[in-house]
Amino acid sequence: MSTIVAIVGRPNVGKSTFFNRLVQRREAIVDAVSGVTRDRHYGKTDWNGREFTVIDTGGYVIGSDDVFEAEIDKQVELAIGEADAIIFMVDVEHGITGMDEEVANLLRRQKKPVFLAVNKVDNNKRAADAVEFYNLGLGDFYTIAATNGSGTGDLLDAVVEALPEKEEVEESELPRFAVVGRPNAGKSSFINALIGEERYIVTDIAGTTRDSIDTKYNRFGFEFNLMDTAGIRRKAKVKEDLEFYSVMRSVRAIEHADVCLLVVDATRGFDGQVQNIFWLAQRNRKGIVILVNKWDLVEKDTKTMKQFEKHIKQQIEPFTDVPIVFISVLEKQRIFKAIETAVQVYENKTRRIKTSELNEFFLPLVEAFPPPAYKGKYVKIKYCMQLPTPQPQFALFCNLPQYLKDGYRRFLENKLREAYDFSGVPISIYFRKK
Ligand code: GDP
Ligand code: GDP
């Protein structure tokens, strides 16, 4: 289960520098929704073998000091509400500011582990200056330089140490679905529609995080666990932050799920925020079904559905082999189809192809369409196998794996998708040396 570490602090202390250092190779997601704050960033990283999601809560505000103060408060409250640990960053160059004191006050009054990071400690003189930060009343601090990474290792050691133990996820043979999407897309309505007709919710498996409840459903003859992340709204006191809460919740839900049901409001389209959630699921190698909801509100002719579908596929290239179901929760249209498709995607995700069968498929294919010669050398693919991983991964063993390019990988993936149903499932193909 994912844990969240939030970085808070006033602008210019070095939060995003530190953030970028942490999520380096991994793409960060930019949440560019709020007009007031700067973009928020979140991404995944790991330290000492512990994976966590790190959030740079932003903090650049255009406006008066008042707006600014309110914004910082909100940021910190968000962090307190959602994160498992908080890194409070200050800047030794500037020393303690009023804003720092404000943040320290808020942080002192709560129970989450807080790590005070004094940044821009680039030399010994600055290390001596850092003692001033004891005055914030938060106890010991870590001196770091985000630009070159010095001190950040000790800080991260401590942060990771304070994170809650990985919770044992209840082993279940049932597919685990998460309903995700932007606020107002119809997630709760969708879940309610399932609950409404289902009088036999068998058990409530204890929440795997404080924020999500797994409920076992037996619906339309299918059994599955559904994580209800949509219904939990009580913490979203601040309206403008609903979007952010909802995405954070999606981060957790997605990591925990086998298949994500991405609910899209047809009247708003497949916009940037929806795409963020889509790629988050894709990067986590989760099964995906796109549910275009509120189809009742769309004025349509015979072509509308195809056009809509085409538009979405353009946005999700090159991973376009994803089922799209047009639904109306309000009019109870195609709810069954939605669940049926999700179950199918789960089956696709758990599909295992025998090594012999796979070789019979791939070897003639690479023989007929060999990879292009590179620097006068020919790549010979010798055999292949599916790896024993929770999501489909394939290894092709060859003499010169470094010469095989993405284009060829995509060609093989497409062929594989033509031959086997991997709809809605990200697959990986690796070239290994043999
Ligand atoms: P944020 O607004 O808190 O996200 O701050 P940024 O990460 O954008 O950094 C603000 C400025 O501080 C940038 O010019 C950074 O290059 C600089 N900065 C960040 N970390 C360090 C550091 O460790 N040492 C020094 N000297 N400057 C730093
Ligand atoms: P959530 O924030 O994603 O959980 O969205 P809700 O389930 O709360 O739905 C937001 C609004 O959209 C509510 O007013 C719903 O009644 C409405 N809504 C949900 N599904 C549909 C639908 O299929 N058609 C129409 N017309 N409205 C819908």
Automatic annotation (TrEMBL):
Q: Which Pfam families match?
A: KH_dom-like, MMR_HSR1
A single BP term in Gene Ontology? ribosome biogenesis
Q: Which UniProt keywords apply?
A: GTP-binding, Nucleotide-binding, Repeat, Ribosome biogenesis
The record lists GTP 2 as bound by 181-188, 228-232, 293-296
Q: Does the keyword Signal apply?
A: no
InterPro entries named in the record: G_ENGA (IPR031166), GTP-bd (IPR006073), GTPase_Der (IPR016484), KH_dom-like (IPR032859), KH_dom-like_a/b (IPR015946), P-loop_NTPase (IPR027417), Small_GTP-bd (IPR005225)
Q: Where does GTP 1 bind?
A: 9-16, 56-60, 119-122
Q: What is this protein called?
A: GTPase Der
Which source organism does the UniProt entry give?
A: Dokdonia sinensis
